[in-house]
Amino acid sequence: MKNENGGDPSSLSQSWRERQAAQQPAYSEGADLDGVLAHLRRLPPLVTSWEVEALRGQLAEAAAGRRFLLQGGECAESLSDCDTATITARLKLLLQMSLVLIYGLRVPVVRVGRFAGQYAKPRSADQETQNGVTLPAYRGDIINRAGFTVEERTPDPRLMLDAYSHSAMTLNFVRALVSGGFADLHHPEFWNLDFLEASPSREEYRAIVDSVRESLRFMEAIGEGANSSLNRVDFYISHEALLLAYEDALTRHVPRRDGIYNLATHFPWIGLRTAAIGGAHIEYARSIRNPVAIKIGPDQEPGELKRLVRHLNSDNQPGRLTLIVRLGADRIESVLPGLIDAVQSTGTSVLWCADPMHGNTEITASGRKTRHFDRIKFELEQSFVVHDRSASILGGVHLELTGENVTECVGGASGVTESDLVHRYLTPVDPRLNGSQALEIAFSIVGKRKRAI
Ligand code: PEP
Ligand code: CO
């Protein structure tokens, strides 16, 4: 029984340790890293291997165009945001978006949250200087705290236990909500769709809402009330597998299954800054059985991508590997065709997913990070166009969003302007779409696909 409950403190996935791991915190000698990791290894997993395998099956269908992946949530989750209102609003938004996509695209949607573990952030510099004082950069609430004092910025391994417990609390509430169903989810008349009136595509979007409403009425009429499949949805979680000590402590053998599973999340991804083929993160991703994703940026060399794809999906298992492409609106048309060609030439199955957020971050004149709705929408639309042209399938979208009414991204029918950014700018890291902007993206995906068909 040594490894089955994670009780053996020795690492299960040893090989990543021999590689260089970028973006890791430097814990001080006095910090009880070993004690924390031993404790984490004894704690129960957050997800199960059968859920992980079910998700892999759904991602395989998305790769083949029979489903569509909607992956969305926080850039950086914070421990203080683990509250009823935040979790409810974000989940409701994702479920509303998924209904728009289901009834608009006529395929089931794979719903994946970017939360319940999204606590570690890669940074471009190890240090930050303010008014002549230099401290370690903020790396996410699982590593240190955002405040600018020595105490807050010193990496503390005990934060891993806080991140674990807050992930568990978040996931517990999400599981309860999705198994009970949200009453007003099935009634688009209760959704906040005011922004539609200001949209240039309002006629088209109204027709989509009507089609969602009709389909829901029909389903409710033929379903068995509270037990109808409408009230039970599959929902999965994902986060960037950045802090390898944490991921490793939640990586376990499972009885009667081969290999090891990351049981901290269903669907870990490797970020752009840690996706080097010889590095520890890719080695870690290779060693686990979960479906994994990697972020692909505009400097991705096609030959290297071929190697990466073969390396991470050497068995050519459908659903195993997702490529989350984040090129930016300016580069999508010139760079994506070559990347698709490269992957097609390997004959390996991948799920292509568009992240139209991370290539479109800019700094305003007043020094705030923002993203323009039109550029996000353009990158997403062009991703569909390029895939269609290359006889390939764009099977999903990856978005940073929140159900709160923030003003972090500029534009959209609800009309957030650059001068609004000061009002409700709450993100500690990247700017997120607010509820209206995110729903508008879902409508625009459907509108675009309907016109293309
Ligand atoms: C992120 O997803 O928040 C992120 C840091 O993205 P990337 O790795 O694509 O830069
Ligand atoms: Co981000």
What's the overall geometry?
A: globular
In percent terms, what proportion of residues is strand?
A: 5-15%
Radius of gyration using CA atoms only: 21 Å
Instruction: Say how many strands there are.
Output: 14
Largest beta-sheet details: 8 strands, parallel, barrel
> Which series of helices and strands comes N to C?
HHEHEEEHHHEHEEEHEHEHEEEHEH
Quote the distance from N terminus to C terminus: 54 Å
CATH class: Alpha Beta
Task: Quickly count the helices.
Answer: 12
Detailed description of the structure:
The protein is an alpha/beta fold. The chain has a single domain, classed as TIM Barrel. Helix content is 38%, strand content 14%. It is built from twelve helices and 14 strands. It has helices spanning 33-42, 49-63, 84-105, 150-153, 158-180, 202-222, 244-249, 280-287, 302-312, 332-346, 373-389, 435-452, and strands at residues 68-73, 109-114, 127-130, 133-136, 236-240, 251-253, 260-262, 267-270, 292-296, 321-325, 351-354, 361-363, 369-371, 394-400. The strands form four sheets. Strands 1-2-5-8-9-10-11-14 form an eight-stranded parallel barrel, surrounded by four helices. Helix 3 packs across helix 6 (202-222). The chain is globular and about 65 Å long. The chain starts with 32 loop residues before the first helix and ends with a helix. Bound molecules: phosphoenolpyruvate and cobalt (II) ion.
